[in-house]
Design brief:
This protein has 251 residues and is of the alpha/beta class. The protein has two domains: 1-32 and 80-122 and 173-251, TPP-binding domain (Rossmann fold, 3-Layer(aba) Sandwich), CATH 3.40.50; 34-77 and 123-166, 2-Layer Sandwich (SIR2/SIRT2 'Small Domain'), CATH 3.30.1600. The chain has ten helices and nine strands. The two termini are 20 Å apart. The strands form two sheets. A six-stranded parallel sheet has the order 3-2-1-7-8-9, sandwiched between helices.
């Protein structure tokens, strides 16, 4: 039944020239990165360190970095999968206006999408930011330099606090990113949601904005989402199955 919808998708993709992608944790599970909320995911095992706690307590900063090190072990071995390459193909065809992601894993960057085409709403764990002077350092370099079991990373330039360039609990989202995502949602002709239940706000509002302004909305997610009833086309498939079907029918 799901595969029977693919010819409609092909027609949508042929017509569209300003596609915006929107991705969540589900796109990265085939790369070996578990959904944060799934059983065994990091949120099911650890209480989060809030941003104000990170700023105020050396003990909390060390705890935060130790958890990031555990997460990094999986990220370092991860590679973009067919879902990421689906959007890279749209970019190569000149059809991708941009991609909005809730993910921090950097796999869209690793797929070859240029930074100018990406909005990382929750940041990017591949980069570490100095909270003092704003200097950006590759996160791998930080782990190579510091034993975070006993040392808190500090900026080599100003000795300020280093933190992965991701949004922590209690830390505001970047307003410029939110504004740009809103503008893309208005100016796209099609938004394709992949691997998100569309339950986390304010990120999940962008597909709704697109649909409310009569943009075509396509959703690919194994489980139901909160916008299924409003979407033009919904695929309840594993992303690998969806991409395989798209390749067979549309390419």
């Amino acid at each position: 039944m799901e595969q029977e919808k693919l010819p409609r998708l092909c027609a949508i993709l042929r017509r569209a020239n300003r596609i915006v992608g929107f991705t969540g944790a589900g796109i990265s599970t085939d790369s070996g990165i578990p959904d944060y909320r799934s059983q065994g995911g990091i949120w099911s095992r650890f209480q989060p360190v809030y941003f104000q706690e990170f700023l105020a307590s050396r003990e909390k900063r060390l705890l935060y970095w130790q958890r990031k090190r555990e997460l990094w072990q999986g990220l370092g071995a991860a590679h973009p999968n067919q879902g990421h390459l689906f959007f890279k193909h749209l970019h190569d065809q000149g059809k991708l206006l941009g991609l909005i992601t809730q993910n921090i894993d950097g796999l869209h960057e690793r797929s070859g999408l240029p930074k100018a085409k990406l909005i990382n709403l929750h940041g990017n764990t591949l980069e570490t930011l100095c909270l003092g002077c704003g200097r950006v350092t590759p996160t791998q370099q930080v782990f190579d330099t510091y034993d975070v079991s006993v040392q808190e990373p500090r900026c080599a330039v100003c000795k300020g606090l280093l933190k992965p360039n991701t949004v922590s609990f209690g830390q505001p989202l970047d307003q410029a990113n939110l504004q740009k995502a809103y503008e893309w949602s208005l100016t796209c002709d099609c938004m394709i949601v992949m691997g998100s239940t569309l339950s986390v706000q304010p990120a999940a509002a962008f597909p709704l904005v697109a649909r409310q302004h009569d943009r075509t909305l396509v959703i690919i997610n194994l489980s139901r989402t909160e916008l299924d009833e409003l979407a033009d086309l919904v695929f309840h498939l594993r992303i690998s199955e969806f991409v395989a079907g798209w390749r067979n029918i549309c390419r």
